[in-house]
Amino acid sequence: MKNKEKRVIFGILFLIFVGILSSILSGSPSMYQGESINENYLEDLRLKAKVECLQSLQCSEGYECINNKCRDKNSINVCQDTVLSTTAVSLKVGDSLNSGKRALSYSDLPYLLEDGKILEIIDDNITEYLYSPLILINDDKIEKENQDHLIKPKSGPGLIIYIFSFSKNVDFSNKNIQGQVLRILGEEYIIGDDSTNSIIYLISDNKRIRLEGGKNVETKEGLVSKVVEGASVNMIKDEKGIAMFEIVFGIQGNINNNKNNIKVGENYIDPVFNTIKLSFNNIQDGLVDVRIGGQC
User: Fold this and answer.
1) How far is residue 73 from each of residues 16, 62, 70, 293, measured CA to CA in Å?
2) What are the structural domain ranges in the chain?
3) Average pLDDT, integer, range 40-69
């Protein structure tokens, strides 16, 4: 083989290597074979449903699709938080975390817990699957131990529970559902095309999340896969599809705190989406300041 031919072949192989390496380093969804948004189908759905958008790619630059409307990114505050006490109930040492607020919804954290919908064309009609996320606060106690004030987990359900429920059961094995977008905690996730009614795959720009009822969440970033401790999945489903999935987050899964408690001045950040932050801020005049919101 002549030197010139060798150089050409080497150049081609080098370009292929660079492309593969770039994809790995970027964590792009293109790494996951076939898992991408079906642009033509979603555009057809959008027109037939007569809505402004179903995903942010259908909005102009600088806008995001929230509840089928394109909104200016500058108006979206995913860092917003809310106190767990209320005007009627102030948290004190010895109280349970959920003494004031037990369930948080859109009215508490509008950009993290935004409602949305999946659409499907059936017999030339639009079928809507509405979803409404919630965060439940468990009844872990705020205690004083020696000279420390801390939040200690109970045995049983985790510190917080993220619930994603649908208005009717969704068949995640349906090719018309796969490739559509769910908005989860302020970010869009594509429903992976290998999802079933037992396992849901969620794809973002740099992460692949696997949800299976009765097991811990599994994630994959680039070529690195892991089982997420302190993040277990429950599902309600039947032969028609999935009605609800929830992720139970325990303190042992805290990515910023390896201890089994949260002291004053410390935060809990969920280990899957890295988005939910529970902050144990301070104690003043016997009153406890605990907040939950977006991690920014």
Assistant:
1) 36, 6, 9, 18
2) 77-294
3) 92
